[in-house]
């Protein structure tokens, strides 16, 4: 029984220090990019009222199947949040005086009782940026610019597929697909790249789509009309034309800004959630080492207003990055390991002085671990070597009396005395040089 209790719950994971340090680095990198773009941090509770999560303007029926539900001691129906968008909606509704546009980022845990796969656990971290209060597609252009910058800093080469739900909805309308059927058809079309035209035909039939519509849709797919210009010629409805105009404007903004990124028009990209009303996008690795998207988002101009039902409009657009899938992507590369500390200070009968030295170095920005166990020098150096620490500082009575500290370079196996008053600068220069070499 004990072994069963000690097992990690399916879909969750213990992240040991080396892996967690890399997760922390990813998080810090994303936070730095978000703040560079003027986004403000927000934190919302993991526990939410189930009624809010279950709202028809939330994530939809498919996600509700994966919600973790519970009752508290007051018998209130609660749930663990499945994304960070619904809690954002609540925050906007509770703060009507909020200045618009409101640009927020949130990095936090979300929970879904769904299938477990590479980069997707049942407890995972989302990193979201949302802009509430503007209809301009300049907001989408800025989010895509931010995404390219974020993945550049993370060392991942990506491309972004873009589409517009208005365009896709208008195309389906002109093909004769009724509004009640549009959602099912979009879900089938979204699989086109994976299953091909024959697969889409079979999927539509499994969804009990009328045969006349199945034939019309597959015939259109076989024509290969898949560029903005060709679609603009073939389909003339105002909805299609508006969707194309928004995409062209956004692409022009990105190109005009000199953003160096691979943007690809994908006419059948729909994104699964029905909340999206305009431009949508998904981010993929160029090398295909992970086939699922590692980020996604889009415009959702109606969800907040409908959910709050206060007569106001809250146009919004967002993007979400999956921290754990990014970690999985980095694990496939020969990335530099993250060290816990740059320096190990080893006291030889000088515990108080060594603690003072360690604190001095920490104040200068050096990451310092203090040897706490009183082990012999050889074993302390062996520990430093195994932990990947760059320098060991040996500090005994002789060093205190001479005003020096012995610095051992763990990478080169060399030692030298360094005057105590110069040790901060000496280490900073050495550590900066080491980072440049890497």
Automatic annotation (TrEMBL):
PROSITE patterns in the record: AA_TRNA_LIGASE_II (PS50862)
GO terms of biological process kind: histidyl-tRNA aminoacylation
Tagged with keyword Nucleotidyltransferase: no
Keywords: Aminoacyl-tRNA synthetase, ATP-binding, Cytoplasm, Ligase, Nucleotide-binding, Protein biosynthesis
Keyword Cytoplasm tagged: yes
Name used for this protein in its record: Histidine--tRNA ligase
Any matching Pfam family: HGTP_anticodon
Family: Belongs to the class-II aminoacyl-tRNA synthetase family.
Domain Aminoacyl-transfer RNA synthetases class-II family profile: 1-347
EC number: 6.1.1.21
A GO term for molecular function: ATP binding
Segments crossing the lipid bilayer: none
Sequence positions that bind L-histidine: 83-85, 112, 126, 130, 271
Any GO CC annotation of this UniProt entry: cytoplasm
Subunit text: Homodimer.
Reaction(s) the record says it catalyses: tRNA(His) + L-histidine + ATP = L-histidyl-tRNA(His) + AMP + diphosphate + H(+)
Lineage top rank: taxon: Bacteria
Cellular localization per UniProt: Cytoplasm
First-tier enzyme category under EC: ligase
